Here is the input.
Amino acid sequence: MSWALVLVAPPEELEILAADLFERGALGVELQEPGMPLMPGTPPLPEGRGRAIAHFADQAAAIGSATALGAEPPVEIPEEDWNALWRAHHRSLRVSPRAWVYPPWEERPRTGVAVAIEPGMAFGTGSHPTTALCLERCDELLAELPGADVLDVGTGSGVIALLAKKLGAGRVVATENDPVALEVARQGAALNGISGIDWVLTADPGEVSGEFRIVIANILLNTLEELAPAIAPKVSGRLVLSGLLCAQGDAAERAYVAEGLRPLARKEREGWLRVELSRP
Here is the structure.
């Protein structure tokens, strides 16, 4: 048996909440964003709110998490139901013109470039709109700039860095301040037989040497603003920012314009936003 814990929160807080739940022992966390299609029978989301559904193997950890986070008591569910639902929720997904992300229990897609990602311990399976927006632009930019160096700030599961390497990027560096997430990313590289990525445990991308033609940062607005003085000097070409709600685009842009970058483009998807800037 396992236990499911359901929490409701503002959409911009869901990723932080998921990270907290993983630290408390969750096996996996499903995030439901406003506007996204829900599985049949799922209750609708409250207006302007999202939902995190965390699954625990340990009852004490589930109860402790519910108490600490002010949630309703966890619900006991049959283990086979959890496995079936988890696998049904994660399927092969085309994330860009040339690339797919797929769970390791499915067959590799037969066309294009594909990266297998084990869902669970770190953010980034390609299904979240912000990750999909970044993967899409990474593919497009590497088609325009073959062999470009790529810096992936806040790599999470490592999916952006892994896909960049498979799409022919030159030097690829991925930073992360969470050692658990970074270990998951390294395991993802081994799962895919990918080498040559520099995985760096740091909260400060300024510690990475050199500049990059492509820099991607898929993290929350407050962190993007805080890290602007460290990220902007790493950009010799394009900077791709996401992890942003549509209303947060101006604030993110201002932080990097102040560091000498020039606004270039924006793209929205399901209430989330990608902002692109360039080095003049």
